[in-house]
Amino acid sequence: MMKKGGQVKESNIGFVSLVSTVVAVGGLLFGYDTAVISGAIKFLQLKFALSDIMVGWAVACLIVGAIIGTGFAGKISDVFGRKKALILAAILFTVGSILSGLANTFTLFVIARMIGGFGIGISSVQSPLYIAEIAPARIRGRLVSLNQLAVVTGIFVVYFLNLGISSYGNLAWNISTGWRWMLGFGVIPGLLFFILLLMVPESPRWLQLKGRTTEALQILKKVHGEGEAKVELETIKSTFNKERVSINQLLKPGLRGALLVGVVLAVLQQVTGINAIMYYAPEIFKQAGAGHNSSLVETVWVGIINLIFTLVSIWLIDKVGRKVLLLAGTAMMTISLAVIGYAFRSGIAGSWILIFILLYVASFAISMGPIVWLVIAEIFPNRVRAIASSIASVALWMANYLVSQTFPVLLNSIGPALTFWIFGILSAFAFLFTLKAVPETKGKSLEEIEQMWMS
Ligand code: BGC
Q: Which element (helix H / strand E) includes 243?
């Protein structure tokens, strides 16, 4: 069998880490765009005199754009290449940021956000996929998870940006102008991503898919060094020769298993409640008894913990493996959610709720956060990777839409205790599903993973 990147030289590691970091900036746009609306929404509501339903739509239209973008991402990436798909994402994100900052009617605002969402959809699936395709097996988990690190960094940075902008002027200024800056600042990461992308090479696996062997080999040499590159290329080639994988085959035994794991994990990442916390944290803390200011401070803690534990995951992921982290994380998520529900039910002090929400976020950050995107990027065969990971990501974004739309309704109808228990039960299911169905992919090359399904 082929090597696992054990002999990859430091200079090669430096190159591939740099390229992966650049591509992970896509995650920054993802985090930025999903979080920026939380600070802008109340000013938008006043500016455009929005009803409650329209407020919901102002938040959700980005997700709808992302669902559509993710759906097209696979085709775009297969036809034009991974790099061009990412460049398109950067352009759409930048244009969406400018237009949403300038919008003078609510309809224009929604269209602008959907354009941005389209870009976010593409980059959410293409950034991890590109990194998975270029990274040596030994450090692939770490490199792909840089994308998630960028997502949480984006969320964190935007929170302070929103705070800074809103405290710059009075209410009237914020209603007329403040929210425009919050959204418009997205131009900076958007352009940065665009410019940096021009310097990265195309994915060697996509080049080989298109029969551009010489170019593929050149890039593999930079990643693996002279000798190893040839071995790597032969292995990739042999899977292309053997593979008769079509979309239909994704539904036959073997690959059906891969599709099931990808889609179910994608849905579980969302229905276990992370974005109920990410999008509504201040509201939850208020329900737990916190005042307005302390609810904001507690929300900052959520961001800090998310960031720190994503780093912990990156450190561990190629050492202990995906499965162990997923099991530990989902088990801790289940326990935390059970306690949060109980605390709400019995009226226990809000500080307990804060502690267990932080524990829940930490558990998500070491497991479901980075690993689901990693699994989606690495478990599918070369020929169908782009399309299959698009399908799984569409499922993820749809589940995101479902949770973010229903959470406020659930909170006001069945109450926080039951709502968190439902998330808890789904986390327990995620634990069992991982135990039974998710294979360990640590240290395996993409072609070895492919063989696992085929056999
Ligand atoms: C999820 C996002 C979530 C973020 C929070 C990502 O992996 O896909 O929906 O907001 O993690 O850290």
A: none
- For residue 34, the ligand 1 atom closest to its alpha carbon is 10
Name the closest-CA residue to atom 12, ligand 1: 152
Per the CB < 8 A criterion, the answer to whether 11 and 137 are in contact is no
Instruction: Say how far apart CA 76 and CA 56 lie, in whole Å.
Output: 30
Residue nearest to atom 11 of ligand 1 (CA): 369
* C-alpha 146 to ligand 1 mean position (Å): 13
3 state SS of 131: helix
* Alpha helix ranges (H) inside 103-203: 106-134, 140-166, 171-173, 179-184, 187-197
Cα angle value 413/421/354 (rounded, 5°): 95
pTM score: 0.92
Q: Which residue has the tokens 């970091």?
A: 21
Which burial class, exposed, middle or buried, applies to 57 when counting CB atoms under 10 A from its CB (0-12, 13-18, 19+)?
middle
For the stretch 375-387, pLDDT in tens is 999 999 888 899 9
User: How much distance in Å is there from the Cα of 343 to the middle of ligand 1?
Assistant: 25
Q: How many CB atoms lie within 10 A of CB 412?
A: 10
Written as six digits, the tokens of 49 are 């005199």
User: What does each C-alpha distance from 68 to 111, 119, 191, 386 come to in angstroms?
Assistant: 13, 10, 22, 15
Q: Distances from the Cα of 137 to the Cαs of 205, 371, 422, in angstroms?
A: 14, 15, 37
Secondary element (H or E) of residue 32 = helix 10-47
pLDDT in tens, 299-354: 889 999 999 999 999 999 999 999 999 999 999 999 999 999 999 999 887 788 99
What is the rounded average pLDDT for all residues in the chain? 91
- In the chain, the N- to C-terminal Cα span, in Å, equals 16
User: Do residues 263 and 392 touch, judged by C-beta distance below 8 A?
Assistant: yes
Question: Counting atoms of ligand 1 from 1, which one is nearest the CA of 373?
Answer: 7
CB 132 within 8 A of CB 377: yes
pLDDT tens for each residue of 123-170:
999 999 999 999 999 999 999 999 999 999 999 999 889 889 988 999
What tokens appear for 128 in the block? Answer: 């991890």
State the distance from the centre of ligand 1 to the C-alpha of 439, rounded, in angstroms. 22
- Which of 172, 133, 162, 127 is CA-nearest to residue 147? 127
Of 114, 136, 124, 143, nearest in space to 18 by CA:
143
81 three-class SS: coil
